[in-house]
Input
Amino acid sequence: MKATLFRQHGGPAVLEYTDFPTPQPKAGEILVRLRAAALNRMDVFVRNGWPGLILELPHINGADGAGEIVGIGTPLPEGEGLGRRAEPVEAVKVGDRVVINANLGCGKCDLCLNKQDNLCHDWHLLGETVRGTYAEYVCVPARQLYKLPHNFDFHAAAAAALVYQTAWHSMVKRGGLKAGETVAIVGAGGGVNSASLQIAKYLGARVIVIGSNRKKLEQAEALGADILIDRSKEEEWSKAIFIATKKRGVDVVVDNVGTTFPLSLRALKKGGRLLTVGNSGAPRFEIDNRYIFAKHLSIIGSTMSTLADFAEVMDLVVAGKLKPIIDKTFSLKDAAAAQERLWRGENFGKITLEIP
Ligand SMILES: NC(=O)c1ccc[n+]([C@@H]2O[C@H](COP(=O)([O-])OP(=O)(O)OC[C@H]3O[C@@H](n4cnc5c(N)ncnc54)[C@H](OP(=O)(O)O)[C@@H]3O)[C@@H](O)[C@H]2O)c1
Ligand SMILES: [Zn+2]
Output
């Protein structure tokens, strides 16, 4: 098959569009002929590498993908996996159109069996420690697939899968965001942020977006953002939030930047929740502990979602209640240019790859 892979960690130049053996489905797995993949910031982190990340090279980036089923592995032996209901090698057929859930629980441990597969003891993320979707074909366990309606666009599905489930689990299941609450989102156009904005509006929350420039803020406004703060003009944006909320602060901050935690903690009202799934800024920074106890704040971390959350949020996506935003589409062989665009922060919404 054709794939864009890397043989060593490094900058975008290590990405190579080349031939690679087509994977074969093991028991319980499905072979998907991918038509679209979508980028995540994690792809660049993995390509660059980090201390302790040990991959079998060459590695293929990519957590998100959608396409058609072309091969089906044998059913898992009795007693393995999540039981018949969630063990659907028999529930799919060649030709089905599917989108992949990259959150790979083992399917066997107590947490997977308890439907908490994103807490799995042997958790993996497709494209991170397992070869991913920048390729014509990928194999995944059958339970990782969501069947798409016949007319649903593969790029929209790939663009939705990782960020909507992440934002849904963080905001709804972990953060308990409710109608009428005010949420501030740190960043306008990122994949997770643009999904978070839509989910917050779907839930009936009031949304403040802190964006890097006017153009991105206008795009956020078109998606329903109620209050816009341009951080190129208001570096201390927690003050602008203070003014916009009549000195109360917000109920919830979505902060996947990390280095902005000091501002986010200041922006929260008493009893507020800081929701985080990432660290686009940096993983280490200082915070002032006094804000946390004096204001009764909660910092709530989350990663990906469960199989049930994924199905729940993808149902909303295919029903048109949440609309994936595609920033730009590149060809699979131009994945390096696509990653450069993401890394420079030029995107509003998701960057996808066309897999011919
Ligand atoms: N744990 C999980 O399950 C999970 C899942 C998905 C992603 N993540 C992580 O979440 C983070 C976001 O991922 P992504 O794919 O959405 O990335 P992305 O598309 O590259 O978006 C990055 C976002 O961060 C904002 N930003 C960057 N620096 C900022 C700063 N100094 N101040 C304010 N905002 C800033 C950008 O704002 P503008 O748009 O305004 O420029 C943009 O909205 C990454 O760290 C990723 O690894 C984690
Ligand atoms: Zn498990």
